[in-house]
Amino acid sequence: MYQRPKGTADILPAQSGQWQKIEATARQVFSRYQYQEIRTPIFENYEVFARSAGDTSDIVTKEMYTFEDKGKRMMALRPEGTAGVVRAYVENKLYGPEFTKPYKVYYMGPMFRYERPQSGRQRQFHQIGVEAFGSESPALDAETIAMAEDLLTQLGARNVKVVINTLGDPESREAYHAALIAYLTPFKDELSEDSKIRLEKNPLRILDSKDKHDQEIVANAPQILDFLSEAASAHFEAVKTYLTDLHIPFEVDATMVRGLDYYNHTIFEVMSDDPAFGGGFTTILAGGRYNGLVEELGGPATPGVGFGMGVERLLLLMQDTVVAPVLPAYIVTIDDSAIPTALQLATAIRRSGYGVDLDYMGKKAKGQFKAANKANAQLVLTLGESELETKTAQVKNMASGEQVGVSFDRLMSDFETVYHELMGGEQ
Ligand code: ATP
Ligand code: MG
């Protein structure tokens, strides 16, 4: 028997309703903030991700699914959404004067990372994310964080908190890099192998190390907040003021960095310590500002800010709130002679916009009534010998038990009125 690849999941009909609900809620929330959907390829040239995520990031060094296509091009399955969106932004010249700024887009879909699978960590997982290009305003950072909070609230996520930090501007980063290298160099021999390399290439990355001993060393490292330029400090202060004015509770974690190299200024995560995550805080949604990324991928200098949310992690948090859908009608056939009429009625009713089902398993009438109940049928249409003769179905409201005869003609031509008459006030 074949098995699905390790780290992937089948989303079965029992769960897909909840996925659709999440996606619909996200679309609704995003559209209120003037975001529109963008759909980019699931795979891109390897360089798109390598350049944007940074070549010392875990994603690029360990987690990316790469392959050479038959034309000998190096390709990669997307490990995250931002790089592809930025590539599309540049390639389609969405920075042009004909487009409103900030240019706001959202995406949803599968991402791929070669990781050790565990609860809330898969090799194919799904993200819902947003990007806004063209504005440097700290008000947009605050709006993006507010939208993330709004989204999670609408989705009924419990036990969440917003954590923010700043990575400053290039000037702040340069000063901080120097201080960090000065602090870490005496520990060089103790650092993990990965971090030894990072020390040369990208010391900031060490702050994000998953290695226990690295983390102990890093605990006393200098903090970026002490190295902010005046402009970077003002930006961060403004973001905090806006969030406070919006009554969005947040924590500042000066040690927080992000797994991708492209961030600067504001970064943020929404975390939860819900028991579903088995102790400690887990990040559900993460994002920030990336003012250099568009340029890095060949576009004009353009600021950007966005976030990505892990749908599987969100699902661990959500109570099972999806109610079983109702079925407007079920057609019970007393014997096979009623099947042609039942099919015609069903087709006409479906074309008029109502869901209806009937039996294809040769069940007896009793079994069909059971099936109607299981499907939460609101009305049951019964077709027996006398109904066929009089061309009239018995239509029963399953909630009230009320039953009336309705002509086939009316059922075919105007089911909507029949439905409303029989359902009365209830829906
Ligand atoms: P982590 O530190 O948990 O590996 P990350 O920093 O790699 O997270 P991001 O790249 O910021 O994560 O991705 C944003 C969100 O996508 C995460 O907060 C998480 O909800 C989700 N996510 C990331 N990797 C996975 C994965 N392998 N499986 C499921 N969800 C994931
Ligand atoms: Mg990761």
From TrEMBL:
Q: Can you quote a single GO CC term? A: cytoplasm
Identify the residues that bind L-histidine.
E80, G81, T82, R113, Q127, E131, R258, Y262, Y263
User: Biological process (GO) annotations?
Assistant: histidyl-tRNA aminoacylation
What subunit structure does UniProt give?
A: Homodimer.
**Enzyme Commission number:** 6.1.1.21
Q: Which Gene3D superfamilies match?
A: Anticodon-binding domain, Bira Bifunctional Protein, Domain 2
In terms of superkingdom, the source organism counts as Bacteria
> What's the family?
Belongs to the class-II aminoacyl-tRNA synthetase family.
Which residue numbers delimit the Aminoacyl-transfer RNA synthetases class-II family profile domain?
19-328
HAMAP family this protein is in? His_tRNA_synth (MF_00127)
Q: State the name under which the record lists this protein.
A: Histidine--tRNA ligase
Name the gene: hisS
UniProt-recorded Gene Ontology molecular function terms = ATP binding; catalytic activity, acting on a protein; histidine-tRNA ligase activity; transferase activity
Keywords noted in UniProt: Aminoacyl-tRNA synthetase, ATP-binding, Cytoplasm, Ligase, Nucleotide-binding, Protein biosynthesis
Could you tell me what reaction this enzyme catalyses? tRNA(His) + L-histidine + ATP = L-histidyl-tRNA(His) + AMP + diphosphate + H(+)
Compartments where found: Cytoplasm
Which SUPFAM superfamilies does this UniProt record tie to the protein? Class II aaRS ABD-related (SSF52954), Class II aaRS and biotin synthetases (SSF55681)
Among Pfam families, the record links this protein to: HGTP_anticodon, tRNA-synt_His
